[in-house]
Amino acid sequence: MKRNILIIPGDGIGQEVTTWGKQVLESIAQKYNHEFVFDEAIMGHTAIEATGDPLPQETLEKAKASDAILFGAIGHAKYDNDPSAKVRPEQGLLKIRKELGLYANLRPILLFDELLDASSLKPEVLRGTDILFFRELTGDVYFGEKKRNEDNTFASDLMNYHRYEVERIARKAYEAARTRSKKLCSVDKANVLETSRLWREVVQEIAAEYPDVETEHMFIDNAAMQLVKNPKKFDVVLTANLFGDILTDEASQIAGSMGMLASASIGDGTGFFEPIHGSAHDIAGQNKANPLASILSVALMLDIAFGLQDEAKAVTSAVADTLKAGWRTGDIANSSTPQDKILGTNEMGQKVLE
Amino acid sequence: MKRNILIIPGDGIGQEVTTWGKQVLESIAQKYNHEFVFDEAIMGHTAIEATGDPLPQETLEKAKASDAILFGAIGHAKYDNDPSAKVRPEQGLLKIRKELGLYANLRPILLFDELLDASSLKPEVLRGTDILFFRELTGDVYFGEKKRNEDNTFASDLMNYHRYEVERIARKAYEAARTRSKKLCSVDKANVLETSRLWREVVQEIAAEYPDVETEHMFIDNAAMQLVKNPKKFDVVLTANLFGDILTDEASQIAGSMGMLASASIGDGTGFFEPIHGSAHDIAGQNKANPLASILSVALMLDIAFGLQDEAKAVTSAVADTLKAGWRTGDIANSSTPQDKILGTNEMGQKVLE
Lengths: 354, 354
Ligand SMILES: CC(C)[C@H](C(=O)O)[C@@H](O)C(=O)O
Ligand SMILES: CC(C)[C@H](C(=O)O)[C@@H](O)C(=O)O
Prior knowledge:
By secondary structure, chain A is α/β, with parallel strands linked by helices. Chain A is built from 13 helices and 14 strands.
């Protein structure tokens, strides 16, 4: 199989972790006799520094022309401390999501037995947890009209959904639920928000098309609570952009660390694969970042974008074996991890490759 | 001291739990020689059934005329399953918050040592946690304009903040931070939302007035994650209405159960005291609800509304002693709790009174 893969390292630790994602892709190509052709492009703070634009036209064109994209991370403390900055790294990510029509963000919460102890949650609460989030990614308050009045006394963002936006992601989530344990939980705030009431109505309608799937509706505040209390009760979780952003970061603690979570953004065209962690500028360039989320994003790419299930499994197994052998990066180590088992980014990437 | 207290039981378990809040108030009055005059009023589903209006005028007038309000809970499954219902219980709660100008919702995450084991989080992660949330309560996407187009293909809610709304709650939070460990974390989504950028700018300005308080700004997704990972790192948390709704429910798992968390809503006039738990219709009328959150709301009322610190401490100590003696309601029991130590609502209320 021949495929064109665009690597967008982005900001902070993005460069370090995508390096390993790419190496894993190269090793898979060799072993399974595929031809992966790589190209690279800039986005975010890195792109602002180079061109003034967080998503240069060239990056967007390369993205559209590729078969899949491996992305690193975005963001820089500079902008976080300056809320009045007009040009911001995150605009690049939001724009590429919109331009590529990446309306469904899949975030599997994959729990490796070896990491049961790395979590702040009790192992007996965690054991057996297996959640697949469907986060809507191109609508909601993320993309609604933003206003600020001239004397800076008022600001607003329009939270909104169109019926078709809810329908298409709901269908994707129900299809997935069918192949899993046939349980779907839709999360909203329908007791307060009109957007959520429309969301709930549409999900109720789509639910009727999937009578074999058991549907539950839950308020976001309750869901944020239940996810800590009893994560096992969730299987497929379907939710809006903002609520999905919050819940999946929270759920990263189930997997032991943000450094373990991969995500796939899909929609109308090219798929986009990225860790859910951020740019982590505090540890960037120090060989400390966990490359496993980027490597697991590669597994999602192989599976979802290329339909290469065996290859995807080989990657996930390599990660599992590395963990089984006791190797850890700092974020997934705990007080009982021997010092000589704690690796840097590169050493961890190397172990998985082997 | 003479005070007029309005009891609004609301829906579901509200009646059962406020009964015990009231009895504790009566016992405090007797012991400390105060005169508490009680009145009662309806709100929510209960009020819709009786009058068609979730917040009848009479309730609002009584509320404005009282010195403090003890509220139970609101909501009913009937409306949750019918997103198109025009009249909804929650409108009563939102309206009274707005009408009484209750812009600051204080939610202390009080951790009783005895309940360390009731949580899904590891005791070593929890021990020493003491968080005070300041949730803005009368602005944000809760109160912005709601729209639905006629053919039901689109819905929206306006997320918005005025500068003065951020200023006044920020000042309250900073004042509280001064009396605690002088650390404040403001939570927003300034990398995406204009509302959050205004929020962050204003908090930065107010922060300059409190140079003795250390300020941190955190994105909501990160905060939802950190709260599970390392709750001890938080002290005063300041956030907007929607984010506060989500984070405080999530944080309830730190305290072992939603059934333990009290809140105080304050602002321009009469204060409003309520558990953060909901109406829990599934267990209503079964003598199963945990009355401790209502009783702890009474402690907040005595402290914040009446300035009666000793009386407030007496209530909190009574709760602590009851837990120390091993008594539990179902929600805070765990597998090692002896069956004969698990009490119903009334028995638990009685133990605290004693
Ligand atoms: C960087 C930011 C804009 C982004 C989001 O909020 O969507 C990130 O948190 C994510 O979850 O991918
Ligand atoms: C019942 C609901 C409207 C309310 C809210 O969202 O504010 C509740 O969840 C709360 O936290 O008090």
